[in-house]
Amino acid sequence: MANGINSRSDGNYHDQMDMIEKCPDCGSEDIATDETRGEKICTTCGVVILSRMIDTGKEWRAFTANEQKKRSRTGSPMKLTIHDKGLTTMIGWDDKDAAGNKLSSRRRAEIYRLRKWQMGPRLYDSKGKNLTQALAELERLSSQLSISQSLKEFTALIYRKAFDKGLVRGRTIDGMIAASLYAASRIRKVPRPLAEIANESRANKKEVGRCYRLLIRYLDLEIPVADPMDYVARFGEELNLSSKAQKQAYKILEKAKKEGLSVGRDPPGLAASAIYISSILENERKTQREIASLARVTEVTVRNRYKELVKKLEISFVIQKSPYKIFNSK
């Protein structure tokens, strides 16, 4: 056989691959590729045209989507919660190599320049600086409020849209991030009381509310009507109520909706009063102060809604040998 072309000794491998259109010996265009041996062979005369080919495919196998995701080495995916200018990794400040040895002065100066260039888009660009500060605040808020990753990503998307429309100009970053988080939680139906988000934010409740109204007006966000039932699960878990007590609270709110008692009422306050009633019915009693503190409403609100529900739904509490129960309604 004729000598094949050594792919490792030639200049440009891809150009070399494109140039091979026919056999250099017989001129045939019937060329086969043997991926197992890494060779290109003329099927007419058997000449090995190219040997020791570079395999550009994967050197590992994956049988499921999860395996493929875990074994891929293309870097972390881009996220809305990460500022997408520059690299997603950070150059450390230890000035040490992988073995833990100190870098020379010349190498430290080089790393310093690389670090400066890496941070450049984030620190020397107006959008970069704004997003860096905003996403750091979002990370802090998410940690304080135990926000899920999907809700955090959606919050970052709303904030980025607000920035692109120029809504951030003249307003605090903290207020806009808190408002974006409140809007995202409302849209995804995992609502948090505005007072709860404002309490953890560096912006006050009035400023967060003003920014929230701005987002609704200019971003055309479709905010669903607040439903008291969306608060029951979270309040119930934080109060350590049983699933039976939470189910009782859902029943109370369903009956309240049918009677029109939820119209014009604050959803967290109504949910708090329903939970208070269900805790009594299931003998898992919680104080009004404890529930009001969790729902970010006053004890007076819980008490008034409680009296209204008991009266309108004709709920009676009967003490028996078993825990408090009996839920009579129309």
In short:
By secondary structure, the protein is mainly α. Helices cover 51% and strands 4% of the residues. The radius of gyration is 32 Å and the shape is elongated.
Topology (SSEs and partners):
Blueprint: E1 5-6, H1 13-19, E2 31-34, E3 39-42, E4 48-51, H2 65-71, H3 105-123, H4 126-145, H5 149-164, H6 173-187, H7 194-200, H8 205-219, H9 229-238, H10 243-258, H11 267-281, H12 288-295, H13 299-312
Parallel strand pairs: 1-4
Antiparallel strand pairs: 2-3, 3-4
Helix pairs in contact: 4-5, 4-6, 5-6, 6-8, 9-10, 9-11, 10-11, 11-12, 11-13, 12-13
Structure description:
By secondary structure, this protein is mainly alpha-helical. Among the domains are: 5-51, Single Sheet (N-terminal domain of TfIIb); 126-219, Cyclin-like (Cyclin A, domain 1); 229-312, Orthogonal Bundle (Cyclin A, domain 1). The protein is built from 13 helices and 4 strands. A hairpin with a 5-residue loop joins strand 3 and strand 4 (48-51). Helix 6 crosses helix 8 (205-219), helix 9 crosses helix 11 (267-281) and helix 11 (267-281) crosses helix 13. It is elongated. The termini are far apart. Mean pLDDT is 81; it is low at 1-18 and 319-330.
